[in-house]
């Protein structure tokens, strides 16, 4: 540490260059930490579990090409035949599809006359819908056969029993979420009894703040357009899709609006987040490269300016290791000051983003790892110039003006 005082004096004599170095490190740290946090936040959103059997679930959006009073009968016929196809585990009808943009959202409250406590997505279907999605029950029970009802549309208005996700239960009853089983909650001010709690299931809108709040109702809706959810045996998805399409298209007037695997649905749902995340990682990589080159250039220039001083130190007996240590320590001091400023700036910028875009604030461990990364980057960038400085001959250096 005997080099520390000379380093501080040297920095004072080259104040403008030192301030420029510190500013560069502070800006890099501020952008780096926030960009990594935003990129990782998007990656976490993309990677979070949907609750479905993602590899084996697909859906078909199609019409019921009959008169309104015949749609319920045709719906039952379609479901019976789809369930009978080879390779099908479960086939059901749903009022929407997770992460597809097709669905409904409802107000949820624990008291009849109270203002809503939260919002939730909703899917209505027959008794097979729970198994067709492939979701997991964590409390309570599945629907009883007597709970299944029918509606042309808006099945949530006629449902009596419902299942809800664990996330919604925790929102209503916090740590004692299991208490929701058997209780009556109010869906758009209509009382409905919770019979079971699902581990995970996502609503139709991937960027919705309560995307994991979902209600499942045992109400088959026989509207003009329906969504058939089909879960296949492993490895049978392509064959089942062909068989299901062949059956559905055997009816005159049938139209297939869309057919997608859930993996395709999820990829489409998060395409913007994936692109943004990749862009942010690209920006991070470019920023680190530019910063490393900047530190290298400034360190090299600083060393060239002090060639005579280095030669004098070498002539006075300073070893190569001591020369390298001097410039490495100088870089560490400058980086530390820049990081200290950068931490304050990163916190301010993070809070601004949080207020403007409803994002979370950067956790403390991001600051810690950002500090280590920035110091490591600075040390790597200064190492070559420091090595070159240590190789200067005292005789040549002292002749340099």
What would you say about this model in short?
Its main location: membrane. The protein is an alpha+beta fold. 51% of the residues lie in helices and 18% in strands.
Shape descriptor reads elongated
End-to-end Cα distance: 29 Å
Counting helices, strands and paired strands, the structural category is alpha+beta
How many domain modules? 2
Order of helices and strands: HHEHEEEHEEEHEEEEEHEHHHHHH
Please describe what this structure looks like.
With 401 residues, the protein is α+β, with helices and mostly antiparallel strands. It has two domains: 171 residues, no CATH class; 189 residues, no CATH class. It has twelve helices and 13 strands. It has a six-stranded mixed beta barrel with strand order 3-4-10-7-9-8. Strands 2-12-1-13 form a four-stranded antiparallel β-sheet. Helix 2 crosses helix 11 and helix 8 runs parallel beside helix 11. The protein is elongated.
Could you list some keywords that capture this structure?
about 400 residues; alpha+beta; 2 domains; six-stranded mixed barrel; four-stranded antiparallel sheet; 12 helices; 13 strands; about 50% helix; about 20% strand
What is the secondary structure topology, with strand pairs?
Elements: H1 4-13, H2 15-47, E1 57-63, H3 71-84, E2 88-94, E3 104-109, E4 118-124, H4 129-133, E5 137-140, E6 149-151, E7 161-165, H5 166-173, E8 184-187, E9 190-198, E10 214-217, E11 219-221, E12 225-232, H6 237-248, E13 256-261, H7 262-269, H8 271-305, H9 307-315, H10 320-357, H11 364-390, H12 394-398
Parallel strand pairs: 4-10, 6-11, 7-9
Antiparallel strand pairs: 1-12, 1-13, 2-12, 3-4, 3-8, 5-9, 7-10, 8-9
């Amino acid at each position: 540490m005997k080099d520390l005082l000379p380093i501080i004096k040297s920095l004072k004599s080259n104040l403008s260059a030192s301030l420029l170095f510190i500013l560069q490190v502070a800006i890099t740290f501020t952008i780096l930490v926030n960009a990594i946090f935003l990129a990782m936040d998007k990656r976490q959103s993309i990677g979070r579990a949907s609750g479905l059997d993602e590899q084996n679930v697909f859906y078909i959006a199609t019409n019921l090409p009959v008169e309104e009073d015949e749609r319920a009968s045709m719906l039952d016929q379609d479901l019976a035949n789809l369930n009978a196809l080879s390779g099908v585990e479960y086939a059901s009808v749903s009022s929407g599809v997770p992460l597809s943009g097709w669905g409904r959202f409802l107000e949820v409250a624990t008291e009849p006359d109270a203002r809503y406590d939260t919002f939730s997505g909703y899917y209505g279907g027959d008794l097979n819908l729970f198994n067709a999605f492939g979701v997991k029950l964590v409390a309570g029970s599945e629907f009883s056969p007597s709970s299944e009802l029918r509606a042309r549309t808006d099945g949530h208005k006629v449902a009596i029993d419902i299942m809800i996700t664990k996330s919604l239960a925790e929102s209503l009853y916090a740590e004692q979420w299991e208490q929701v089983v058997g209780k009556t909650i109010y869906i758009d001010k209509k009382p409905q009894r919770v019979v079971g709690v699902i581990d995970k299931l996502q609503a139709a809108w991937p960027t919705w703040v309560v995307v994991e709040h979902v209600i499942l109702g045992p109400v088959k809706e026989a509207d003009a357009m329906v969504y058939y959810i089909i879960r296949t045996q492993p490895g049978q998805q392509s064959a089942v899709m062909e068989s299901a399409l062949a059956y559905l298209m055997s009816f005159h007037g049938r139209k297939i609006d869309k057919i997608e695997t859930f993996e395709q649905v999820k990829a489409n749902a998060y395409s913007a987040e994936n692109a943004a995340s990749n862009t942010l990682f690209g920006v991070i990589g470019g920023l680190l490269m530019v910063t490393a080159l900047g530190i290298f250039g400034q360190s090299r220039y600083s060393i060239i300016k002090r060639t005579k001083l280095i030669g004098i130190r070498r002539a006075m007996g300073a070893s190569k290791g001591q020369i390298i240590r001097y410039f490495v320590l100088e870089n560490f001091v400058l980086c530390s000051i820049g990081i200290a400023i950068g931490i304050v700036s990163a916190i301010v910028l993070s809070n601004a983003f949080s207020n403007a875009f409803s994002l979370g604030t950067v956790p403390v461990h991001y600051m810690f790892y950002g500090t280590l990364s920035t110091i490591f980057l600075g040390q790597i960038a200064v190492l070559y110039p420091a090595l070159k400085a240590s190789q200067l001959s005292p005789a040549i250096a002292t002749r340099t003006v």
